[in-house]
Amino acid sequence: xxxxxxxxxxxxxxxxxxxxxxxxxxxxxxxxxxxxxxxxxxxxxxxxxxxxxxxxxxxxxxxxxxxxxxxxxxxxxxxxxxxxxxxxxxxxxxxxxxxxxxxxxxxxxxxxxxxxxxxxxxxxxxxxxxxxxxxxxxxxxxxxxxxxxxxxxxxxxxxxxxxxxxxxxxxxxxxxxxxxxxxxxxxxxxxxxx
Length: 194
Hints:
By secondary structure, this protein is an alpha+beta fold. The protein is built from five helices and 14 strands.
């Protein structure tokens, strides 16, 4: 968390939180949701300002209930999630000698997968090694790269994913409706009392 945010929290500790105004969409875009967007259920306007995106990413965390938020100075802004709290993309692994993969989340940080899941809609999710594990959905523009490194069984819900250094991760089936409960996050804090 940024030092300026810590100072604001100390100075104004009782600022009410807000919900519904910020969304992380299915492709890892941060979106502002004004009252019209909230009323219509639309995802809102993408945030394009690099400094603001960096500020959001550095001050993004979860509370004890699994509700993700952006700490905007003294105010906690709860985030609507398009799917998972993290969205990952494949990137070239510049540390590797040959054809290695890397995953980067929407903040540009490395994501080291320990498990690969596939939902009934064909969404690919990665869980990491942390406890509890973080879960990230793969950006849909990277499904071709995933397919180049995966072998799907005839049921299209199992198989294996060939990761780096000969590591093979089995594909596990998961129902999309069960992902939030399984990984302990709240997709819509606005729908839950905060």
